[in-house]
Amino acid sequence: MTSSVLIADDDTAICEALERSLRFEGFKVRSAFNGEVAIQEIERDLPDILILDINMPEVDGIQVTKYLRSLDIDIPICILSARDEVTDRVAGLEAGADDYVVKPFSFEELLARIRALLRRRSVDDAKVVSVGELNVDPMRRAAFYDGQLLDLTKKEFDLIHVLANNPSFVMSREQLLNKVWGYDFDVDTNVVDVFIGYLRKKLEADGKKRIIQTVRGVGFVLNK
């Protein structure tokens, strides 16, 4: 599946150049020109990786990073900044960024770093995810709730894996369609509601509490 990149930088020339180059390399790319819009874009449609400038109006890159990490949103974040002091790099990494690239930069190096971060994310996605009494094992494609193995179809497993990887984060129907069914899957959006219903029926057997909540007008969230 095509990886999605969100570029957050108030320098439109850099955004446009990166958009062209990354699209040529096969990425799906969006841009935001300040930190506030970047957060809105992430909440609307979670990207696979965020390329983030520090010096932006409204909300700066450090604030964006801290905000995302406070919500347990663990997408890879690569800071792209003209600030080259060691203290700046340390501040970015301690805020929760995964990498720090100084401007001016080589696109080839940035591309290599993006791919490395996405590979690392793929390895992380293979680990067992635990949210409360729910345990999701992607290597075995098995999910257990309250110690019981759930009998899930392929899409049901993919859906619960995505939700478990984003606990307490409200995911829109569009985000779930993109992550589970693919960007080019032409389907009516009620398919998400149908599969959420299937999951709830299996998770809530024997009177167990509801852990997948509906956020009216937004989407769904997996809680502990």
From TrEMBL:
One term under GO cellular component: cytosol
Keyword Phosphoprotein part of the UniProt annotation: yes
GO biological process: regulation of DNA-templated transcription
Residue ranges of every copy of the OmpR/PhoB-type domain listed in the record: 126-224
Residue intervals of the Response regulatory domain: 4-118
Full protein name: Transcriptional regulator ycf27
GO MF terms, alphabetically ordered: phosphorelay response regulator activity; transcription cis-regulatory region binding
Gene3D superfamilies assigned to the protein according to its UniProt record, in alphabetical order: 3.40.50.2300, 6.10.250.690, Winged helix-like DNA-binding domain superfamily/Winged helix DNA-binding domain
SMART domains named in the record: REC, Trans_reg_C
